[in-house]
Specification:
The chain is α/β, with parallel strands linked by helices. The protein has 10 helices and 7 strands. The termini are far apart. The relative contact order is 0.17. The structure holds adenosine-5'-diphosphate (ADP) and magnesium ion (MG). This is ATP-dependent RNA helicase. One of its GO terms (cellular component) is small-subunit processome. It comes from Paramicrosporidium saccamoebae.
Length: about 240
């Protein structure tokens, strides 16, 4: 039953936290499902990058993250693995609606993230959708209500929140703001604020940004709760 699952999940989080006082080197050392591990290994992801070593143990324990790391450091898996694991641990099914949302600044970046998700998440029975506009709204509208994980650009997502009556997000568990500095540079500050304000408060949020500015701090204050702040610099 649901209560017992919650308690089991909590106990698992506590034990995860204790287990990883030393950083993991390989994905196989993480407390993750064999479905995810197989997805990673089949895609030849074996060892963690520095940001993944910092972010994954924290994110897998359910805490919020404010992460600074440069492009190419491996941020995508730092949030996709925790998303898959959060839904897996909650025994999420196709019928449970939207569980996780990733906001990306551009269509191209959203597509790249979506493809990594499809690749490493293939062993889970979850549905994932890309919401980036370009196609007609109607065909997206029909699919969007069935998705468990969405990778979206902010403008198009807010359009669906306003106009797609069957779209429902009240059960959302994980929000990711990827490349948040670029999202703000592209003029999406108000859009993202509106999205964040509409989402359930009880959720995990991960915000990644290459730079730390006042506007990122403001977004962090709005969207994160007691985040673990991490900054990982150049060298691997
Ligand atoms: P970022 O989002 O920080 O710019 P990405 O997540 O896009 O970085 O990763 C950059 C590149 O590194 C990609 O080509 C990705 O496939 C690769 N990569 C990421 N994590 C790993 C890993 N653990 N092992 C090997 N390659 C990785
Ligand atoms: Mg990235």
């Amino acid at each position: 039953n649901k209560d017992k699952d919650e308690i089991d999940a909590l106990e698992k989080r506590i034990s995860d936290g204790i287990q990883f006082i030393t950083p993991p080197v390989r994905f196989s050392e993480l407390a993750i499902s064999t479905k995810t591990l197989k997805g990673l290994e089949d895609a030849h992801f074996l060892e963690l990058t520095d940001i993944q070593k910092c972010a994954l143990p924290i994110a897998l324990s359910g805490l919020d993250i404010l992460g600074a790391a440069k492009t190419g450091s491996g941020k995508t898996l730092s949030f996709l693995v925790p998303i898959l694991e959060r839904l897996y641990r909650s025994k999420w099914t196709r019928f449970d609606g939207l569980g996780a949302l990733v906001l990306s600044p551009t269509r191209e970046l959203a597509l790249q993230t979506f493809e990594v998700l499809r690749n490493i998440g293939r062993n889970h029975g979850l549905s994932a959708g890309l919401v980036i506009g370009g196609k007609d709204l109607k065909s997206e509208q029909e699919a969007i209500s069935r998705m468990n994980i969405l990778v979206a650009t902010p403008g198009r997502l807010l359009q669906h929140m306003d106009q797609t009556t069957v779209f429902e997000w009240s059960q959302l568990k994980v929000l990711v703001l990827d490349e948040a500095d670029r999202i703000l540079d592209l003029g999406f500050a108000k859009t993202v604020d509106a999205i964040v304000k509409a989402l359930p408060k009880e959720r995990q949020t991960m915000l990644f940004s290459a730079t730390q500015t006042d506007s990122i701090s403001a977004l962090a204050r709005l969207s994160l709760r007691d985040p673990v702040v991490m900054s990982v610099h150049a060298q691997q």
